[in-house]
Amino acid sequence: MRKWGALTAISLGSLLFLIDTTAVTVALPDIGRAFTASLTPLQWVLNIYTAVLAALMLVAGSVADRYGHRAVYLAGLTVFTAASLACGLSPSVAVLIMARAVQGVGGAAIAVTTFALIGSSYDGRDRGVAMGIWGAVNGLAAAAGPIAGGLLTQYVSWRAIFLVNIPLALLAMWLTVTTIAAVAGVRGKRFDVAGLLALFRIASFNALMVCGVIAASVFACLVFTSVWLQDTLRLGPVAAGLAMVPLALSTFVTSTLVGRRLQQIPPRLLIGTGLLLGGAGSALQAGIDAHSTALSILCGLIVTGIGVGLLMPAMGTALFATVPPERFGVAVGASTTARQLGQTVGVAVLGIVFQSGAGAVDGLNRVYLVAAGLGFAAAATGFLLIRENVGTMV
């Protein structure tokens, strides 16, 4: 129990903060009707969370280095739980927006500490297995968010999206206290600007940042896939979410299997191949027409999922091997910020591409082709710039 209880605690935290990034999307119409709110405040309900996440990643990473990753992780879970309760009980859209901002503070603390907690709790082959399972949970959470949000909204209430966090977060806190050893931080340490700049002089670290940004941008095409499924094919939130299940399952299975061999396979190979498959999966989804159905993108979703499953655990392993231990919190903060930035920029850029089409179908085909090009470019970056022996045991 104690051996894998730590991984359960870490995975629960990742699951919570990632699902709340996407699950709220399908609940926005119900929230708008509940508060008679216009589109602008509803957009803030969604965006304030990711904006605070991105803004605080580096700060949270530095704080974790100073006070200890377990302590900051527990603090993040506490803040996230209180904010989830406030979201679920919000009497107005303004209160909901403020509570979502606080939820983002807790989410930032959770996001930047999970990598380090895996590193301090496991080593050798166990670390590889843990990274694989953790990556699988992350991929599953990102894809399952709309499904969970749709089910809760349709059959319970939009408030349940937030209230369901509370027992799960409390379980994660209990497991953290009972199964993860406390490791003291460097109390006198301040925000290490020079150390952060030093990280960007490491070629492999820069390559990892670029790959993270582009990978998140490619993953952003799922937003427009959801629009096509719901607005063009007229699928409900739950049905549209279920159409994305092949992506989630292929990610989960791949990450779990790859995690067992992470110590033997160069992360450069896994990262480059994962990005290559992500681009190929996007290309396979292009070519839809007015007669296409959800099954038309099935093959592309599976290939993309396999790519994500290769990429996520390998990125973590490469980061472990590239960055000095005393700068790991800041490095994870930078990495997570890069992914958030990639997702935000990806949605914006691909949104312009989507709107440039002669309709939803043409726009989505263009999105897939651009995402494919980005995936191939990121794959080349990974193959060329990440050192061959990073993260392997030889």
Automatic annotation (TrEMBL):
<keyword id="KW-0472">Membrane</keyword>
<feature type="domain" description="Major facilitator superfamily (MFS) profile">
    <location>
        <begin position="6"/>
        <end position="390"/>
    </location>
</feature>
<dbReference type="InterPro" id="IPR011701">
    <property type="entry name" value="MFS"/>
</dbReference>
<feature type="transmembrane region" description="Helical">
    <location>
        <begin position="97"/>
        <end position="117"/>
    </location>
</feature>
<protein>
    <submittedName>
        <fullName>MFS transporter</fullName>
    </submittedName>
</protein>
<feature type="transmembrane region" description="Helical">
    <location>
        <begin position="235"/>
        <end position="257"/>
    </location>
</feature>
<feature type="transmembrane region" description="Helical">
    <location>
        <begin position="71"/>
        <end position="91"/>
    </location>
</feature>
<feature type="transmembrane region" description="Helical">
    <location>
        <begin position="294"/>
        <end position="320"/>
    </location>
</feature>
<keyword id="KW-1133">Transmembrane helix</keyword>
<feature type="transmembrane region" description="Helical">
    <location>
        <begin position="43"/>
        <end position="64"/>
    </location>
</feature>
<feature type="transmembrane region" description="Helical">
    <location>
        <begin position="160"/>
        <end position="186"/>
    </location>
</feature>
<feature type="transmembrane region" description="Helical">
    <location>
        <begin position="129"/>
        <end position="148"/>
    </location>
</feature>
<feature type="transmembrane region" description="Helical">
    <location>
        <begin position="269"/>
        <end position="288"/>
    </location>
</feature>
<feature type="transmembrane region" description="Helical">
    <location>
        <begin position="367"/>
        <end position="386"/>
    </location>
</feature>
<feature type="transmembrane region" description="Helical">
    <location>
        <begin position="207"/>
        <end position="229"/>
    </location>
</feature>
<dbReference type="InterPro" id="IPR036259">
    <property type="entry name" value="MFS_trans_sf"/>
</dbReference>
<dbReference type="Pfam" id="PF07690">
    <property type="entry name" value="MFS_1"/>
</dbReference>
<keyword id="KW-0812">Transmembrane</keyword>
<feature type="transmembrane region" description="Helical">
    <location>
        <begin position="341"/>
        <end position="361"/>
    </location>
</feature>
<dbReference type="InterPro" id="IPR020846">
    <property type="entry name" value="MFS_dom"/>
</dbReference>
